[in-house]
Amino acid sequence: MGNKLYHGAAWYPELWDASVIEQDIALMKQAGINVVRIGEFAWSNMEPTEGKIDLGFFVKMVNLLHENGIETVMCTPTPTPPIWFTHGHPERMYVNDQRQVMGHGSRQHACTNHPYFREKAALITEHIARANGRLPGVIGWQIDNEFKAHVSECMCATCLTQWHQWLEARYETTQKLNEAWGTQIWSEYYHSFEQVPQPGPAPFLHNSSLSTMYQRFSMEKIAQFSDEQAAIIRRFSDAPITHNSSVAFSVDNERLFRELDFASFDTYATYDNPANYLLNNDLWRNFKSGRDYWIMETSPSHAASLASYAKPHPNGYLKAEAVAAYALGAEAFCYWLWRQQRAGCEQPHGSVISTWGKPTVGFPNVLEVEQARQEIEATILATRPTQAEVAMTYSDVSKAFLKTEPHQGLNHRGLTTDFYERILNTGIHRDVVPEGGDLTGYKLLFTPFLPYISADLIQRAAAFVAVGGVWVVGPLSGGRTEEHTMHTKAALGDLEQLAGVETVYTFPMDGSNSIGSAFDIAAPLSLWSSVFEPKEAVAVGTVTSGLTPGLAFLTEKSHGKGKIVMLGSMPAGDEGEEMLNRLIVHYADAAGVSLRTDVTIGTIVAPRHGADCDIWVVVNMDGAGGSVTLPQDGFDPNTRAIYRAGRLEIGRYEHKVIQFHR
After folding, report:
1. Record-annotated residues binding Zn(2+) (predicted)?
2. Which terminus has fewer CB within 10 Å in the chain: N or C?
3. pLDDT at 594
4. Residues of the chain with pLDDT under 70
């Protein structure tokens, strides 16, 4: 891609006439939009009747944009198959877990595993890639749109057949499957793979292995579809390929991005939840290591549909979002959408320009983003994000486990965001790393809410600890096997011996009046918990009341040059928040973490580095202002303003770029 920061929007020229298109491009140039994405829902425009494909309009649009200095991310239109594909063909459609067959309309209504869908999707993608792949205006590709955003696991007949094939490839024999899943329970024993059902309607709950493995099957199949699409595009284009995903969707993002060139995400986090927004940046930075990510969608003001709307951003917040994103490693900050839609189900959604061609309430903020982009671009392009010394493990596979076994409504996204926010609020610079991510360079690793911890992760984390790292495991981590069954040799499997503990009990501590004491504070304990008898470990946190007084809920054990820490329960309430804060700071100190600041809560420091300098980009995200202590004198590389060592105040949604000489 170009040596620039991108400021973009989704655009749907197929919905408007030539005069509106001309007006849009003029307004884009005024707003500083230098990239748009097109085509993602336009299958019926490209192929109005089956087999009659014409890409001339979109070639014209790419060239017109390029002539006006605006580059294009070209999309494949596969989330919205036309009526000729769907009408009279219920067998091609998505079927939900209640066995309801989707009809035409909305999007994601087709089963992406159906062979005829794959055939037609491959054909339209090949035509688009042939027509647009070598155009100078096309700088990137987006496959489909938001896989599994509105749907999850399909229960159609096609998926049932492919499910059986997937099971046979995985287990080889039904005997191995039955043993792995424990199917003698409730007479679930299977004599052939064809007998294994999909986890649809049932009087009670399905076997945990069945439910979780069907999710993993679905995640793998949608990733394979993405792989197929990418392979077609690469035959005709050298431009990099992505998909716009989210932690909220029923996908395994780590697997999905494995065969793509760069990672991008969509976010509609509201202004009063900046941790939600920042977590995405700290995670997507690590899906394609060394390659900048894109924010492909965010609203310039508010998200909305016919059924709902979110709170509009306060003035100034959009600029804070954009500067934080660029500083944390984003190459692009893009809106959904450019011109408000005059029809359909998202008419009320926030946009840059209204249907009648006038600026929206978000437009002045878009101009602020463009001004900030121009001011910081040279500095951002001359530096790279500095790797954090502290990381938190993220796993979409664990999301599947917690969907199967949510206990009392636990939500994976909420749990991980809350834990991440506690790290964020300490002022420690942090990464969120995929389960299979490289641990090189980190000093402290948190692995919460991974019911299943793979042997590979245990091995790599043990090696990380042996050379001096500190690994904090839990809560809710390690208690399930890969097949979503219980361990039988120890409650937490092989993890226990490594951690030097014996898990005495596992049970839900909510409502049990359990109190734990650690770091000179006592707090209620909550969630499904493990309590330990230290063997080679030592107790750091002890249960003082409830069902298990005297046992440990927090232990540590030396391993090589580092430590393995087991957090068996989640401290709760205000006291629990303070305990977790002390835990994070204590182990950051123990690990020798130095990449941290005393920045006030609600303001962040994004560190970057160049050949001979270090950069701090300080951004207030909560609208309340904040402050941070500068360790030495610095200056703004754009304005040359001097910042003296000591306390620096940051105003409401303000940002400052500070360069330090080494």
Report:
1. 111, 154, 156, 159
2. C
3. 97
4. none
Q: Would you say 154 is a known binding-site residue?
A: yes
| Residue 253 known to bind ligand | no
- Does residue 184 form part of some domain? no
Q: Tell me how far apart the alpha carbons of residues 73 and 128 are, in angstroms, rounded to a whole number.
A: 12
356 and 394 in a common domain: no
Active site residue 297: yes
Alpha-carbon gap, residue 165 to 170, rounded angstroms: 9
Beta bridge partners of 526: 570
Rounded Cα–Cα distance for residues 66 and 77 (Å): 21
Q: Which two tokens stand for residue 644?
A: 């003296």
Q: Is 566 helix (H, G, I), strand (E, B) or coil?
A: strand
Cα separations in angstroms, 359 against 248, 270, 347: 31, 21, 16
Which residue, 465, 492, 460, 463, is CA-closest to 476?
492
Q: Which of 146, 435, 483, 496 is catalytic?
A: 146
Q: Which of 297, 321, 496, 556 is catalytic?
A: 297
- 274 CB-near residues (< 8 Å, 6+ apart): 602, 621, 622
Give domain status of residue 182, yes or no: no
Residue 207 resides in a domain: no
SS3 content of the chain, % helix, strand, coil (to 5): 35, 25, 45
Same domain, 409 and 448: yes
Residues 376, 401, single domain; the answer is no
Same-domain status, 404 and 514:
yes
Q: What is the pLDDT of residue 662?
A: 85
Question: Could you tell me the residue range of the domain that residue 28 belongs to?
Answer: 6-90+98-151+222-381
Mean pLDDT for the chain overall: 97
327 found inside a domain: yes
Examine the domain organization and report whether 583 and 623 are in the same domain.
no
Is 111 within any annotated ligand binding site?
A: yes
Give the list of residues 6+ apart from residue 516 with CB closer than 8 angstroms, or none: 522, 523, 524, 525, 541, 542, 543, 544, 553, 554, 569, 571, 579
